[in-house]
Amino acid sequence: MNKPCAAVNVGIPVFCSTASRVGVQAIVGLFEQRTTMPFIQSVLASLVAGALVILLTGLFSRRARWVLTAILGRILGVDIEYVYRNSRAAADDVKHNLERASWVDLMTGRGNELQRETFAPILAERRGPGTRPFRILLPETQPTGAGYDWTAQRESELAKFDRSFGQGVLRTQVNTTVEFLLPHLSEGEIELRLFSYPHLGRILITNRAAFFTPYSAQTHGRDCRVYKYRVGGDMYEFLRRLFEQLWNASRPTANRVSA
After folding, report:
1. Topology of 80-252 in CATH?
2. End-to-end CA distance of the chain, in Å?
3. For 201-235, what is each residue's pLDDT tens digit?
4. Any residues with CB less than 8 A from the CB of 139 and at least 6 apart, and which?
5. CA distance 210 to 227
6. Is the dihedral of CA 91, 92, 97, 100 positive or negative?
7. Confidence class for position 7, pLDDT limits 50, 70, 90
8. Contact yes or no for 166/99 (Cβ under 8 A)
9. Would 228 disulfide with which of 32, 82, 183, 221, CB 3.0-4.6 Å?
10. How many CA atoms, within 13 angstroms, populate the side-chain half-sphere of residue 55?
11. What's the CA gap between 114 and 181, in Å, rounded?
12. CB within 8 Å of 163: residues ≥ 6 apart
């Protein structure tokens, strides 16, 4: 006896043989595939379109790129917040960060930026009890004993692409920065030490973020990328630890620098 086809669910019983039921099931399966595939394709198209919108927006909007980088960093478990093309592109963010920081640690090569407007608000502060600490590490320009002259080594790199260097210019620039900072040092407004370590990059750390500029052997530090890391991440903690190690191993500056 024929039974209603189990594969048909349209409210009207259809009686058929076993062979017929198999045929009906195949037809219904094909119908379901044809109705399901457009839905899947629509979802995939929406996802692709959304990704393209985000990418295209990121190409033209710095804020969008910052958000996208931060989101991807958290997804991948990386504490990076943003990557700037160079120090000029990072200047506004650095200045904004410094204005709100409760303490500042800086390790840099020649220190020219300390004489510009980025750090002017900090150096212009009149210090007193409870003011924010500002520690600065600059390169050692007068190595003693058998110490390696890392400043001369960095200058030899600079001289390969910039003819202004090669005759002690970098050493003079560092000494000029130290002389510029001495009035602030004598008033107890900053702490300053000289490190004997390869000139591998600039590190700026506050309680709000860390900025790291790895130096290249083929260009000036001001033209290198600047990486911003959020507080509490692995790189932020690594940079803090590196700064502390170098600070403890460095010597305090004298009241003046000899030429």
Report:
1. Endonuclease; Chain A (3.30.870)
2. 112
3. 999 999 999 999 999 999 999 999 999 999 999 99
4. 109, 110, 150, 151, 154, 174, 194, 195, 196, 197, 199
5. 8
6. positive
7. very low
8. no
9. 82
10. 6
11. 9
12. none
